[in-house]
Amino acid sequence: MASASSHAAIPAVFQELPVIRDTLITETTELQTETVSKCLIFLAGSHSSQKGPLNRHGVPALMRDEHIGYLYDSLEDYPPGFVAMDASRPWMIYWALAALSLLGEDLSRHRDRAISTIIPMQNPTGGFGGGHGQISHCASSYAAVLSLAMVGGEEALNLIDRQAMWKWLGTLKQPDGGITVFEGGEEDVRGAYCAMVIISLLNLPLTLPPEAKAREYGLETFTDGLLEYLSRCQTFEGGISGSPGSEAHGAYAFCALACLCILGEPEVTIPKCMDVQLLLSWLSARQYAPEGGFAGRTNKLVDGCYSHWVGSCWPLIQSALDGTQDAASPQSAVRNLYSREGLTRYILGCCQSKNGGLRDKPGKHPDSYHTCYTLTGLSSVQHYHYHTNSSAVLDGQFSSAFSWKYRPARDSDDKISDINVFDEKDRLKAFHPLYVIPHEAAESMRIWCAQKPLGNARE
Ligand SMILES: [Zn+2]
Q1: Is 426 annotated in the active site?
Q2: How does it assemble (predicted)?
Q3: Is 38 a known active-site residue?
Q4: Nearest-angstrom CA–CA distance, 249 and 113
Q5: Tens of pLDDT along the chain (459 residues)?
Q6: Is 360 marked active-site?
Q7: Is 78 part of the annotated catalytic residue set?
Q8: CA 226 to ligand 1 centroid distance, Å
Q9: What is the distance in A from the centroid of ligand 1 to the CA of 378?
Q10: Domains, the chain, with CATH or none
């Protein structure tokens, strides 16, 4: 049983070992038991590295200043051992800026540096590589475009060669409807999600460029066959895999669901492509007790980054079940699809590193990737998101992707089974549930691009 001392306000489910445990002892079950034992001490707030008093719910405070300091450091020099990160330069910018933004920092001071760092990574043939001289990749292009959207301003938005981006993305479209992550690279739901994020934010034409190879197979637009491709990625478990026939995974689930919500209204596209009941069953099984956090796959350990990858699936599913809301008076019929309390306890109790930065789980080092995605998950817990009949984009494609609104999650949502266990001072900024940047950053980029149509894009 738990050896940690208990706080009166912490429910037993977050203090005790699970009632039902696997009787077959394997390396997997041993690792799981070990992880639970470590987490229980942090969930009780009684580990020696945890500072400060617990709040009235028995939850540690958000170490806002320490995390901000950690993120500023993450944008400075790295020792030689980190050379492999040279292929992730746009990601390092995105993770740090996104997390700083969630924490309430003004990003305008980073604008010039972000622009000068990102400029050399754009290839004349379109898209952004992970570092200087590297070929363009969907993931690094996604991170670069989102970083530029976050810092904003004419210079940042203007530096993207949208015409070349459109042509490059055209080379990635495949005959079966899916999209590869780079030319000749693997085809998976990351490619689909990143490409649709870029196309919808930059207001690129949906038609494939004339030279796109997929045209030879009868495809004419980026979305041809895409819903069907995503549908084939749902597995027998109900989760979503990276590509048809592989294992269901939390990060791919988010990519696929967010892509479906860009392609149309969630209540239309999600049930059209997915068995929603089976998907709910799989997603629900990703949250563990007593830890409270999410694991990414069946029989895996809880990990802070899935606070976003799995956690951010919930508002999308909820929106699919609730349908389009009136922007002024949303009426959610569906509540508590997951334990917001449990996720809050895991993030604030188990993921905060004593010197700043957030981590996968106790015993791991923090990094900017986990800092970004645990905080994104915390923000998702703290805000109720819904899509509406009122879009920031009045005409053109994907208007429903820009119709998402939010309000702070309040105790009154459901006082009995899922209360806010964080203090008001620990509430983060809300992020757009599809673009994972501030709402206003996504809307500004799209509106700016819509005012500057590509000259000869359709020729
Ligand atoms: Zn992780």
Answers
A1: no
A2: Heterodimer of an alpha and a beta subunit.
A3: no
A4: 35
A5: 444 457 889 999 999 998 888 889 999 999 999 999 999 999 999 999 998 899 999 999 999 999 999 999 999 999 999 999 999 999 999 999 999 999 999 999 999 999 999 999 999 999 999 999 999 999 999 999 999 999 999 999 999 999 999 999 999 999 999 999 999 999 999 999 999 999 999 999 999 999 999 999 999 999 999 999 999 999 999 999 999 999 999 999 999 999 999 999 999 999 999 999 999 999 999 999 999 999 999 999 999 999 999 999 999 999 999 999 998 888 877 678 999 999 999 999 999 999 999 999 999 999 999 999 999 999 999 999 999 999 998 777 899 999 999 999 887 555 556 789 999 999 999 999 999 999 999 999 999 999 998 864 443
A6: yes
A7: no
A8: 28
A9: 15
A10: 49-77+90-451 (1.50.10.20)
Cβ atoms 328, 358 nearer than 8 A:
no
Q: Which of 272, 300, 364, 429 is catalytic?
A: 300
Could you tell me the pTM of the whole model? 0.96
Tell me the one-letter amino acid at 120.
P
Q: Is 372 a catalytic residue?
A: no
E-state strands within 245-402: 383-387
- Residues in CB range of 255: below 8 A, 6 or more apart: 189, 190, 192, 193, 194
Q: From ligand 1's centre to the CA of 248, what distance in Å?
A: 16
- Residues ≥6 apart with Cβ < 8 Å to 348: 59, 60, 61, 62, 378, 422, 426
Query: 188, 224, 303, 322: which is the annotated catalytic residue?
Result: 303
Q: Is 57 tagged catalytic?
A: no
Q: How far is the CA of 452 from the centre of ligand 1 (A)?
A: 39
